[in-house]
């Protein structure tokens, strides 16, 4: 056999072997969980971050949504009671509402008779406490959206290290020596980015809901202060 024939046959044999190995890998059924576990230990902190993201988002979403339920009769009843001098009735309605706006108006009603600036300050202080309560743990989503892709990048680095280690051990580059590190590299990166995107989207979704709620509460609070500041009220 000539040298030309040898150079032609051996690469074809290598390609045929690689193609056969690729077909076998394609035919192998791997579940999603098994595929994720191939990324190694880096998936443990990523799984914890995913769990924290889901728990925080669901809990904050339900809390903010509950606080966002608007009762139009609250302001109208408080207005009528204040104008008619029935402060006890207005206080009862505010307490029964069990809402952020109700607690703010209640504080303002308890300050009636004092300077309007004192009333405004009391309402503002209660408003800050209500907003802080609604924002609880919200910043954790922003932190997770930054940390998760970084952890995925760490997995990428470990995947590259594994590839070089396996190539060195095999004495050359082939699919078997590269595939293990590629699993770690690609799965960790994809998982980290996915969790980061989910946390980022959840953070901004909740912030948008909260901003709308705050705007409506502030509008009603200003309307209440204007009512008290009107002559004869």
UniProtKB/TrEMBL annotation:
- The domain of life for this entry's organism is Bacteria
What's one GO-annotated cellular component?
plasma membrane
* Membrane-related topology note: Multi-pass membrane protein
- Residue span, MotA/TolQ/ExbB proton channel domain: 98-218
Keywords of the record, alphabetical order, are: Cell membrane, Membrane, Protein transport, Transmembrane, Transmembrane helix, Transport
Query: Transmembrane helix: is it a keyword of this entry?
Result: yes
Q: Where in the cell is it found?
A: Cell membrane; Membrane
Q: Where are the transmembrane segments?
A: 39-58, 138-163, 183-206
The answer on whether this UniProt entry bears the keyword Protein transport reads yes
Major site of localization recorded for this protein: membrane
GO BP annotations of the record are: protein import
The record, for InterPro entries, names: ExbB/TolQ_transport, MotA_ExbB_proton_chnl
Similarity section: Belongs to the exbB/tolQ family.
Q: What is this protein called?
A: Outer membrane transport energization protein ExbB
* Source organism of this protein record: Parapedobacter indicus
């Amino acid at each position: 056999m000539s040298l030309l024939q040898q150079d032609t046959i051996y690469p074809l044999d290598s390609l045929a072997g690689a193609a056969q190995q690729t077909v076998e890998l394609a035919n192998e059924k791997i579940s999603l969980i098994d595929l994720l576990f191939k990324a190694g230990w880096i998936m443990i902190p990523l799984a914890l971050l995913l769990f924290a993201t889901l728990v925080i988002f669901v809990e904050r979403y339900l809390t903010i949504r509950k606080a966002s339920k608007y009762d139009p009769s609250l302001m109208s009843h408080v207005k009528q009671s204040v104008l008619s001098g029935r402060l006890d009735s207005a206080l009862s309605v505010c307490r029964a509402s069990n809402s952020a706006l109700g607690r703010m108006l209640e504080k303002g009603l308890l300050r009636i008779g004092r300077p309007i600036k004192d009333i405004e300050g009391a309402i503002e202080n209660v408003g800050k406490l209500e907003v802080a309560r609604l924002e609880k743990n919200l910043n954790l989503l922003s932190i997770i959206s930054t940390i998760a892709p970084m952890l995925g990048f760490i997995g990428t680095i470990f995947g590259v290290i594994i590839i070089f280690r396996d190539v060195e051990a095999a004495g050359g580059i082939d699919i078997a020596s590269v595939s293990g590190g590629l699993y770690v590299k690609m799965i960790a990166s994809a998982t980290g980015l996915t969790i980061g995107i989910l946390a980022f989207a959840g953070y901004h979704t909740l912030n948008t809901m909260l901003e709308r709620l705050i705007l409506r509460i502030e509008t009603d609070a200003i309307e209440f202060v204007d009512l008290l500041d009107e002559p004869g009220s």
